[in-house]
Design brief:
105 residues, single chain
């Protein structure tokens, strides 16, 4: 292992420890891959939940992320407000402010 590490350092300028090489070879032997396999992230909100969020916003565009979180917590899905904001953005709902401020006398 040390010969391989020394050779990589000299020829390619790659600095790696013998332990790192052992881990790399073990992973390659087990998986056949040269990189770590990507783990598929599990979505908390299913398509059913996404459809419910979308229809709720269509019915009432003034719903806040907190309102949506409370609505889904009644259905048994616990999400944070920041996650709910991300879901709304992913669904294409964008909050826009007015171009000007109304003056009231």
């Amino acid at each position: 292992m040390s010969k391989i590490a020394h050779r990589l350092e000299i020829e390619d300028g790659i600095s790696i420890s013998c332990r790192g090489l052992r881990k790399f070879f073990k992973m390659h032997r087990e998986t056949g891959l040269l990189r770590r396999p990507y783990k598929q992230a599990r979505r908390k909100a299913s398509h059913h939940h996404l459809n419910a969020i979308d229809t709720a916003i269509k019915e009432n565009p003034g719903l806040t992320a907190r309102d949506l979180v409370n609505m889904l917590s009644d259905q048994g899905l616990l999400l944070s407000e920041s996650h709910m904001s991300r879901i709304r953005r992913d669904l294409g709902w964008i909050a826009k402010g007015t171009k000007y401020c109304h003056l009231i006398r």
